[in-house]
Amino acid sequence: MALLSLEAMAAGYNGRAILPPIDLQLQRGETLALIGRNGAGKSTLLRTLLGLQPPVSGRILAGPGLRVGYLPQRSEVLAEAPMRVRDWLLLATDEGRSFLRPFIPREVRDRVAAAAERARVADLLDHQVSELSEGQRQRAALARALVSAPNLLLLDEPTSALDRVAEEIVLSVVDEIRGRGDVGVILITHSLHVAGTHASRVLLIDKDEHVVETGSFAAVSSGANFRRLYGLSHTSVADCGDH
Q1: In the chain, what are the domain boundaries?
Q2: In which band, very low, low, confident or very high, does the pLDDT at 241 lie, cut at 50, 70 and 90?
Q3: Residue 224: count of CB within 10 angstroms of its CB
Q4: pLDDT (tens digit, 9 = 90+) per residue, 160-207?
Q5: Among 82, 35, 16, 21, which Cα is nearest to 221's?
Q6: Longest CA–CA separation in the chain, Å
Q7: What strands lie across the sheet with 22-26, from one edge to the other?
Q8: CA dist 52 → 17, 45, 60 (Å)
Q9: Is residue 41 a contact partner of residue 205, using CB atoms and an 8 Å limit?
Q10: Are residues 160 and 79 in contact, defined by beta-carbon separation less than 8 angstroms?
Q11: CA angle, 213 as apex, 201 and 13 as ends, to 5°?
Q12: Residue 63 DSSP one-character state
């Protein structure tokens, strides 16, 4: 059964849809890249998927036992937290350490350790968050999203402003998590390179042109909508980098 299903779901605000209705299913072990130009409606769609605003029409169906983890944009990730990575991850649990709760159950500590291992930050748990590089901080933020053991990850431009080396490390971690087959990923990205090399499928949207198109990156990038929106031919996509 699908992790998440959209049935004629239209996203918008104030009762007005800004995108055509979307029919879509996301399966475990799949990465769906949400792509579109700046102002295409990606943020509105993301807020709807996160349940922060209701669909204008249609519905979103959650699969049995759906648990969502969310990684916000890099600018929203706490950069100067006066604490260790371990304590920052513990704050993502219901049993986070405080002066009222100085002792953390072993089960919670084990969950934090497992999340840190999956995100490749186990060796950074005793480092100060403020001491981390940009790439390390993004992996720590990914670990924070994994603490609740989600089976659906929503990642909002997780590699924005990272250099290529740090970007590939973060994306390889996401690929490993998704590759285990128990987690589905929705990846919001402005990078066609990322969408083309790390996604099972893409969802191309544009509110101004009333476009909603899904399929493999090869199929979508060879279509008329893609060419009209990006001004790129399919053969030039491989060279577009972070267009």
Answers
A1: 1-67+151-243, 78-148
A2: very low
A3: 9
A4: 878 889 899 999 999 999 998 889 999 999 999 999 999 999 999 999
A5: 35
A6: 60
A7: 22-26, 4-10, 57-62
A8: 16, 10, 13
A9: yes
A10: no
A11: 110
A12: P
Cα distance between the two ends of the chain: 35
Q: Going by C-beta distance under 8 Å and a sequence separation of 6 or more, which residues neighbour residue 161?
A: 74, 134
Residue 42 CA to residue 207 CA, distance in Å, equals: 9
Query: Hey, which residues does 61 pair with through a beta bridge?
Result: 5
Q: What angle do CA 41, 46, 51 make, to 5 degrees?
A: 130
Q: Which residues contact 153 (CB under 8 A, 6 or more apart)?
A: 68, 69, 70, 71, 145, 146, 174, 177, 178, 183, 184, 185, 186
Burial status of residue 24 (CB atoms within 10 A of its CB: 0-12, 13-18, 19 or more): middle
Summarised one tens digit per residue, pLDDT across range 29-67 is: 999 999 999 999 999 999 999 999 999 999 999 999 999
Tell me which CATH homologous superfamily contains domain 1-67+151-243: P-loop containing nucleotide triphosphate hydrolases (3.40.50.300)
User: Could you read off the pLDDT of 38-47 as tens digits, one per residue?
Assistant: 999 999 999 9
CA distance 40 to 207: 5
Report the C-alpha gap between 59 and 74 in whole angstroms: 30
Q: Which residues, 6+ apart, have CB-to-CB distance to 84 below 8 Å?
A: 125, 126, 127, 128, 129
Question: Which residues in 88-122 are b (16+ Cβ under 10 Å) and which e?
Answer: bbbebbeeebeeeeeebeeebeebbeebbebbbbe
The residue whose two tokens read 């104030």 is: 14
Given a contact cutoff of 8 angstroms between Cβ atoms, the answer to whether 178 and 188 are in contact is: no
